[in-house]
Amino acid sequence: CHDVPNWISVELYKRIIAHVQGGESYYTAAVRELRENNYPLRPFVVVRPPVLAIALAAISEEMVRALLAALAGITFLAWAWRLRAVVSSPVLYAFSLILLATGIAPAIVPQAYPLHEVWAGLLIALSLAVRRPNAWIAAVLLGVAAAIIRELAAAYLLAMMVMAFKDACRKEAAAWAIGLVIIAAALAVHAHDVNALVT
Length: 199
What we know:
The protein is mainly α. Helix content is 69%, strand content 0%. It is globular, with a radius of gyration of 18 Å. The two termini are 21 Å apart.
């Protein structure tokens, strides 16, 4: 544990994005910012994967916020549509939508856009909403995108692979397994790049 206030992580990620916008390497900027703010640098996963910061550095802050709000809105609508088919009581459906909105609410906080967990969480939720027994490709792609942004989301891919295998959906299970292989390869590259800067 460290005694750095929680809010500093948002500011830290914003500074890293600004450094990348200025042409600096993501890894040198991230490692320096973590050091200066007394964050640990081992294990390598304490340095977030670079994909989100690099993507956010390529577009304006206003566009980023609009994209995050759009992702939140699409996720809400996808779940609203999915729940409509399984929740028969209007009262229970309304209550479900309120709970859903509560879970999505962090995405519309103005300062939430640099946080990897917000993007990955929405992508996982959307992946679950669009998954169907015979239509799972989009769900797999969204799950992989979530894990590329935040490596902890690989647990979701693993759980989905196990469930697909349990349900004898071998092609789907294989797709989730391929997603896990992609994430493992990306993490190996990430670990190499981080360890090259950590003594």
